[in-house]
Design goal:
The protein is an alpha+beta fold and about 190 residues long. The protein has two domains: about 1-125, Impact, N-terminal domain (Ribosomal Protein S5, domain 2, 2-Layer Sandwich); about 130-190, Alpha-Beta Plaits (2-Layer Sandwich), CATH 3.30.70.240. Helix content is about 35%, strand content about 35%. The chain has five helices and twelve strands. A five-stranded antiparallel β-sheet has the order 2-3-6-4-5, sandwiched between helices. Strands 8, 9, 10, 11 and 12 form a five-stranded antiparallel β-sheet that branches. The protein has a two-stranded antiparallel sheet with strand order 1-7. It is elongated and about 70 Å long. The model has no long low-confidence stretch (mean pLDDT about 95). One of its GO terms (biological process) is regulation of translational initiation. GO terms for molecular function: guanyl ribonucleotide binding; ribonucleoside triphosphate phosphatase activity. This is IMPACT family member YigZ.
Length: about 190
């Protein structure tokens, strides 16, 4: 999987229509919708603002009035071919008066995203997981220190007759973290999921 290092945009003119291809890194659907709103302001009076969002836990797309399957689908295919995640692709179109037909639209939208990605810097993304671990109150500080040592982020904590921590860590680090935690807590650790 790959992510974008920074936003990139490019512009194509096809039969008098202007296609502005924009790709940008995003962390959530909310962030993507804010960026889409900003693009509507930045490019006023455009005919279409077609978009595809690929984000952990939230994906979506919109052909924004173009015939079904002629805008978002080719954009999605380009993003998937590159193995991207946490990305928003938007193609802003200013209609030039000449109809392109379904095939022409499909090529234009896919090409706009593809051209923008040619200018982009991609960075490898390691998959993460968010397991929950339960231990006694006396072991909480030790578990938190181990999480920090293994570059795991503590996302939340729940308290009842024990403490449950939800962590985010790289998938490749889970086994080592769990082995260290079981040893340090003398077996007093339970994975909850």
């Amino acid at each position: 999987m790959y992510a974008l290092a920074a936003p990139v945009d490019t512009e194509l003119d096809i039969k008098k229509s202007r296609f502005i291809g924009i790709v940008m890194p995003v962390a959530s659907r909310e962030a993507a919708m804010r960026e889409l709103g900003a693009l509507r302001v930045r490019y006023p009076n455009a005919t279409h603002y077609c978009w595809v969002l690929l984000c952990e836990g939230a994906s979506g797309f919109d052909d924004d009035g173009e015939p079904g399957g002629t805008a978002a689908k080719p954009m999605y295919n380009v993003l998937m071919h590159k193995g991207l995640t946490n990305v928003l692709a938007v193609v802003v179109r200013y209609y030039g008066g000449i109809k392109l037909g379904a095939g022409g639209l499909t090529r234009a939208y896919g090409q706009a995203v593809s051209e923008a990605l040619k200018l982009a810097t991609l960075t490898a993304v390691e998959p993460t997981t968010e397991p929950r671990y339960r231990c006694g109150f006396a072991h909480e500080a030790t578990l938190r220190r181990l999480a920090e040592r293994h570059a795991a982020e503590v996302l939340d904590a729940a308290y009842d007759d024990a403490v449950t921590l939800r962590l985010r860590l790289k998938v490749r680090d889970v086994a080592a973290f769990e082995a260290d935690a079981i040893e340090a807590l003398s077996g007093g650790l339970t994975r909850c999921d």
